[in-house]
């Protein structure tokens, strides 16, 4: 074959293109196999019941199907031919891609045989590698195609629909059908095809004899040789790491085994004739049980080999070799790979620590990094494919690695180190290429005896390209691209590897060594990322989710592995690198990444919150409520020293847990802090990473978990039980919450995360009725408790408001109270409540209180409407006692009115207390906000527009200020809907309600609970009785009310002998009410103040005042 013909063949270009195309076709075939096997993703035309007869008929008759005959089985396709054609087209085209690929591979392999190409992995590495890759890729495509069960149905249905639509069969159908039939037993057909290529394939494989055995060594030999150690020879630490076979040093052992196993299966004749072939083949057979075809498709190498050789005469010895190798694998392989992983964990850690400390060594020692990554990747992939298809053996623990996290972690750290210090690597190798490689290459060219024109042009171009490099290009951050140079070297390998080449590469090994070295150095300058992907990409883990998740679970159970757990989600960033443009439909999911991050966050949040709970318990021991017992015991000891009883355990004082006689004693808190340190270390690996174009921030998962858990804990700390009316005191909850918050802030010393944002989000959600997940908050819980427990009992007089103590207290009854009201309603508790739920929470509480008030007002309106005629007459005749006495007999529901007014008073009393406490909290928390609001209120006057006044009062009320007009009450009453009632009528009803209340007051004198209590600052019965006076903007109705009440009460004084006078003085005190709309002069005109003074003197007379 002439030299001119060699150049025209473009072997290098064809190998490069066909390998890429073959990978795409292989991935496509695997995708079709997967979706056809998955019931959820299966094509609709294969699942329709109407098409089942047609599919059965096609599978039976394939490929000779009579589409034109009037066959009843195909009528369903006739009816849906458009749908079938559309659904099957993409699959049909994919199968045509296989034929096209096969044709090109045949042509190229025949050309290479015709050229009698020379292959040696140590000399023409790229040419040999591409050749062997093409063979294994083609074989994998055919094997995967043969595993697609529905291929005949898909192709047959397409051609049937095509013929029914166009009237003719598809031109490619006969060849496609023939290919499917031929490859029903793929290995038999493939061995026939590759018979003519045995010489070339065997020669390429035998060149691995110098590489594969050296790579396939046990861990003991690695350890004795101090493999990957930079510290073993300190004097040579700065020497560049280089050898004659640079690319072979990080060539994947899995790739070599695939070449050897598949190559000798296809070209098996050399196994019986060549001892070297046989030894190499047996060594590969002893390495494991499975080889990866693509993704999670594997080849059971011993079974396939045995089945093939069983069918060939004269291969009995080879079958025996296969069985012996399989037994060897089952006995030794698992343990050997386990030891390798153990060695690599230590070696990778040492390498990373040294390079992290001295990143300048990444220049001369870059080869060590890629060797370490490649070795580790091989071990990870071996374990993955064997764990999924684990053999039934006694030593199954060899196939389980609970320390996989550490190996993956160091792989990720080394990758990150190379990426981070890429400029260091670039700078070193640019100088190496320009000042050493270019000179050596030039000298090598000069020493050649023969150098044809084409080769001379290529090599001269290489020298000039390298000589032009300078460090300034790195400093100026110029982009380098040596892909053309490397393609030229591949072309040169092809030109010089053919038979009778003018410049045979095998006669110039020095040229090959120099160029292989230059190729590695150029990759260090422009394609470090690509080389990192080639040597450390473990995207196959995405196709083994069960194994991957099992590895994570096993690692997460080990305390020492927790710091490495972040390697698992980081590995998910590799998944996007395994796709191909020929198969864009492959599923892309963040599920695994999210699952791992959720699990890590769950573990971390659990430890953090356990520590917080422990700190909360310790903090609770220091609360004042716990000191009473200690004070009592101390006082008792002073009075009388008693000997402690036998077996009586002395109660430990707070702080006793910090006393330690021996530091070796590990407490539960120590264990939790250690676990937290380990888990938080994993978050320091990286702040974010990219998976399928999504930026993933691990700390956000932790914040989300903490937010959810903390919200649940806060609600749980409230300890609300609706049945028993139990709930935690607001002050206790606030103290616990502060202890949790203080402990949470210590987390920021472990991880760089915004704890303030977390706390704000959680606490802000607790001020709303529902949190972000729709769960109950403490705002809802405390609102329900105060309304359903405290205020309901207050409405029934079991609990009363005590103005003297400014809280609610239990009223003495026969029944034991379920709680002490003063423990939940005094100033300190309501301030704690205001601090917990804030203005938003108190607004929600206020809205619920107003709803209860409006419901009472609605009932009062009904009572007024029922007695309207009588009340109108009473309003006009309040100064006529005889007439009033007659009208009062006609009035019904007086006690009901007073009871409902009492309920309103209870609610308003509680709301006023809550508002005052909110103001105190707000004044301490944000005085700069409270000051301007106070000034704004001072600017209001009676002449100010009422809308402006209400707007200002709304702001002030939200901040806790007491307003002359309660905007919430005004809004609530204003929103009450009354059918067809004008404003005047509403005003009339309000005035009549006051009349109703006024004439009903004297009946309180008969109630024994109306007696005034000096301790509480009021009477049990009417201590809550209030008038919603802020509902009236003018004072005229209040004047009428005062006059009416004074008239009815003064009549009590005339009934000296009647029972109605029993609590007369206590009832008089009801008129001593403060109102922004009434002055003392107006009150004096209605009811003389001297009567009030005498009433006070009378009610206080029964109390004995003691001094001292």
Key words describing this protein structure:
1108 residues; mainly alpha; two-stranded antiparallel sheet; 49 helices; 64% helix; 2% strand; elongated; NCK associated protein 1 like; Nck-associated_protein-1
Unreliable segments (pLDDT under 50, ≥5 consecutive)? 1-5, 1020-1024, 1026-1035
Supply Rg.
46 Å
Within the largest sheet, what's the order of strands?
1-2
Counted by DSSP, the helix tally is: 49
Main sheet record: 2 strands, antiparallel
Anisotropy-based shape = elongated
Strand proportion: under 5%
Termini separation (Å)?
129 Å
What structural category characterises the helix and strand content?
mainly alpha
Report the mean per-residue pLDDT as an integer. Answer: 87
Organism: Cyclopterus lumpus
Protein name: NCK associated protein 1 like
InterPro entries: Nck-associated_protein-1 (IPR019137)
Region (Disordered): 636-659
């Amino acid at each position: 074959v002439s030299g001119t013909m060699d150049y025209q063949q473009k072997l290098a270009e064809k190998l490069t293109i066909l390998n890429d195309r073959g990978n795409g076709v292989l991935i496509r075939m695997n995708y079709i196999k997967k979706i056809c096997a998955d019931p959820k993703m299966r094509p609709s035309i294969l699942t329709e019941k109407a098409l089942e007869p047609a599919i059965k008929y096609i599978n039976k008759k394939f490929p000779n199907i009579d589409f034109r005959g009037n066959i009843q089985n195909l009528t369903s396709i006739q009816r849906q031919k458009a749908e079938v054609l559309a659904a099957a087209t993409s699959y049909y085209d994919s199968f045509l891609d296989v034929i096209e690929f096969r044709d090109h591979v045949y042509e190229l392999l025949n050309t290479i045989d015709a050229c009698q190409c020379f292959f040696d992995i140590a000399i023409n590495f790229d040419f040999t590698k591409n050749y062997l890759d093409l063979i294994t890729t083609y074989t994998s495509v055919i094997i995967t195609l043969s595993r697609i069960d529905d291929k005949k149905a898909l192709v047959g249905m397409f051609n049937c629909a095509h013929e029914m639509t166009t009237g003719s069969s598809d031109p490619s159908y006969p060849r496609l059908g023939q290919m499917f039939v031929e490859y029903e037993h793929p290995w038999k057909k493939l061995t026939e095809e590759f018979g003519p290529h045995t010489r070339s394939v065997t020669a390429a494989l035998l060149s691995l004899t110098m590489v594969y055995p050296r790579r396939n060594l046990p861990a003991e030999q690695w350890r004795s040789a101090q493999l990957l150690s930079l510290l073993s020879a300190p004097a040579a630490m700065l020497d560049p790491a280089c050898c004659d076979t640079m690319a072979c040093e990080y060539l994947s052992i899995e790739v070599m085994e695939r070449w050897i196993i598949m190559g000798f299966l296809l070209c098996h004749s050399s196994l019986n004739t060549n001892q070297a072939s046989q030894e190499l083949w047996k060594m590969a057979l002893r390495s494991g049980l499975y080889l990866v075809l693509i993704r999670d498709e594997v080849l059971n190498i011993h079974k396939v080999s045995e089945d093939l050789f069983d069918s060939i005469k004269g291969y009995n010895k080879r079958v025996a070799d296969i069985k012996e190798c399989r037994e060897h694998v089952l006995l030794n392989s698992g343990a050997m790979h386990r030891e390798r992983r153990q060695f690599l964990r230590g070696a990778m850690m040492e390498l990373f620590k040294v390079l992290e400390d001295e990143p300048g060594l990444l220049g001369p020692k870059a080869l060590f990094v890629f060797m370490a990554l490649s070795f580790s990747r091989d071990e990870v992939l071996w374990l993955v494919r064997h764990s999924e298809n684990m053999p039934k053996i006694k030593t199954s623990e060899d196939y389980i690695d609970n320390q996989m996290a550490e190996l993956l972690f160091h792989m990720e750290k080394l990758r990150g180190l190379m990426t981070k210090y890429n400029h260091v690597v670039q700078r070193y190798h640019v100088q190496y290429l320009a000042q050493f490689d270019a000179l050596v290459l030039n000298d090598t060219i000069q020493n050649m005896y023969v150098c044809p024109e084409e080769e001379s042009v290529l090599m001269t171009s290489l020298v000039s390209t390298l000589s032009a490099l300078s460090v300034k290009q790195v400093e100026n951050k110029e982009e380098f691209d040596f892909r053309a140079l490397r393609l030229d070297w591949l072309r040169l390998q092809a030109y010089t590897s053919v038979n009778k080449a003018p410049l045979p590469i095998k006669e110039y090994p020095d040229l090959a060594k120099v160029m292989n070295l230059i190729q590695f150095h150029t990759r260090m300058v422009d394609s470090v990322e690509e080389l990192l992907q080639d040597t450390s990409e473990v995207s196959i883990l995405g196709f083994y989710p069960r194994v991957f998740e099992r590895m994570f679970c096993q690692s997460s159970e080990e305390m020492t592995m927790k710091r490495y757990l972040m390697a698992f989600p980081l590995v998910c960033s590799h998944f996007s690198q395994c796709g191909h443009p020929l198969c864009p439909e492959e599923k892309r999911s963040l599920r695994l990444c999210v699952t791992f991050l959720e699990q890590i966050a769950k573990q971390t949040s659990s430890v953090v919150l356990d520590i917080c709970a422990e700190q909360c318990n310790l903090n609770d021991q220091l609360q004042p409520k716990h000191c009473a017992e200690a004070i009592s015991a101390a006082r008792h000891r002073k009075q009388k020293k008693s000997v402690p009883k036998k077996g009586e355990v002395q109660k430990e004082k707070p702080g006793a847990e910090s006393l330690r006689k021996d530091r070796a004693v590990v407490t539960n808190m120590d264990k939790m802090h250690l676990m937290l340190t380990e888990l938080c270390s994993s978050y320091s690996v990286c702040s974010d990473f990219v998976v399928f174009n999504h930026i993933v921030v691990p700390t956000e998962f932790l914040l989300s978990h903490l937010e959810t858990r903390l919200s649940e804990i806060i609600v749980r700390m409230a300890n609300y039980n609706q049945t028993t009316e139990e709930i935690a005191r607001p002050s206790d909850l606030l103290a616990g919450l502060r202890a949790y918050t203080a402990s949470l802030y210590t987390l920021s010393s472990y991880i760089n995360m915004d704890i303030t944002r977390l706390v704000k989000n959680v606490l802000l959600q607790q001020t709303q009725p529902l949190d972000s997940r729709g769960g109950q908050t403490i705002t809802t819980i405390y609102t329900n408790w105060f309304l359903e427990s405290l205020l309901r009992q207050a409405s029934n007089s079991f609990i009363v408001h005590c103005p003297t103590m400014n809280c609610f207290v239990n009223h003495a009854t026969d029944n034991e109270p379920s709680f002490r009201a003063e423990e939940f309603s005094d100033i300190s508790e309501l301030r704690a409540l205001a601090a917990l739920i804030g203005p938003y929470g108190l607004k929600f509480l206020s809205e619920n209180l107003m709803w209860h008030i409006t419901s009472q007002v609605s009932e009062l309106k009904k009572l007024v409407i029922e007695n309207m005629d009588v009340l109108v007459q009473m309003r006009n005749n309040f100064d006529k006692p005889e007439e009033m006495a007659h009208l009062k007999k006609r009035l019904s529901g007086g006690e009901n009115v007073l009871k409902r007014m009492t309920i309103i008073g209870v609610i308003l009393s509680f709301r006023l207390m809550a508002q005052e406490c909110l103001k105190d909290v707000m004044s301490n928390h944000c005085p700069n906000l409270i000051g301007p609001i106070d000034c704004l209120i001072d600017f209001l006057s009676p002449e100010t527009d009422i809308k402006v006044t209400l707007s200002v009062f709304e702001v002030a009320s939200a901040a806790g200020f007491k307003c002359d007009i309660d905007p919430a009450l005004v809004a609530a009453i204003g929103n009450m809907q009354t059918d067809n009632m004008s404003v005047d009528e509403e005003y009339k009803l309000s005035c009549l309600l006051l009349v109703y209340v006024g004439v009903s007051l004297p009946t309180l004198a008969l109630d024994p609970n109306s007696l005034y209590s000096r301790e509480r600052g009021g009477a049990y019965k009417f201590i809550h009785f209030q008038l919603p006076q802020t509902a009236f903007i003018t004072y005229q109705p209040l004047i009428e009310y005062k006059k009416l009440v004074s008239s009815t009460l003064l009549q009590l004084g005339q009934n000296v002998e009647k029972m109605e006078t029993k609590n007369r003085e206590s009832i008089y005190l009801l008129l001593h009410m403060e109102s922004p709309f009434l002055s003392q002069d107006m009150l004096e005109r209605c009811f003389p103040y001297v009567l009030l003074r005498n009433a006070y003197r009378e009610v206080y007379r029964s109390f004995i005042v003691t001094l001292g």
